[in-house]
Each structure stands twice: as structure tokens, then as C-alpha cells.
Amino acid sequence: MKKFFLTIFFLILVILTTYIKNSTKKLDEEIYLTKEKIGFLNNKYDLIKLEYDYISSPEKLIEYYNLYFDDSFNFLELKSIGKIDFNNKNLIYYNLLTEINE
Prior knowledge:
By secondary structure, this protein is mostly helical. The chain has one domain. The chain is built from three helices and two strands, in the order ααββα. The chain has a two-stranded antiparallel sheet with strand order 1-2. It is elongated, with a radius of gyration of 33 Å. It starts with a helix and ends with a helix.
């Protein structure tokens, strides 16, 4: 009778150990996936924050322009910007302002 109870006891211990091991493995996988998502979101946050810091206002853009570029850009009038369309070997020029107003 004593052998029977010892056998049952060890069998229960083996089953519990297997169950605990599988549960721990699933938790580890969930933790890993959550850490990966957090890392991805942190990278996305850093990029968005960087974009916001550099392009948050026209004053900042002018400040960065004066700081880094030293008159290397030319200013254009909005009405001088257009689009060229190549349809069936024909060149068609569209003015940007006419497309915006339509």
C-alpha cells in the first residue's frame, strides 16, 4: 500500500511539474512578445518626437535653415510650382494652384 501511494505521489509531481513548465513557457513567450512590441513602440515614439521637435513650427524651420544651410536654397512662389503629365507622348503642364482650387 505504501508503494502505491508513493507511486501516485510521484506521478502527481511529474504531472504538476509538466503543467508548471508549460505554463511558464507560455508566460515567457508572452513576455518576449510584449517586450518586442514595447521596443517597436519606443522606436516609433522616438521618430515621431524627433519629427515634432524639428518640424514643429515655421520659426524652428527658419532657425535650422539659418543654422545649417547658409543660403543654399531658393525660395519659390507657390504659383510657379506645377506638374508635368506624360500622356500618350504628349506633355501637359498643370499649375498646382489650379488643381488645389478645383
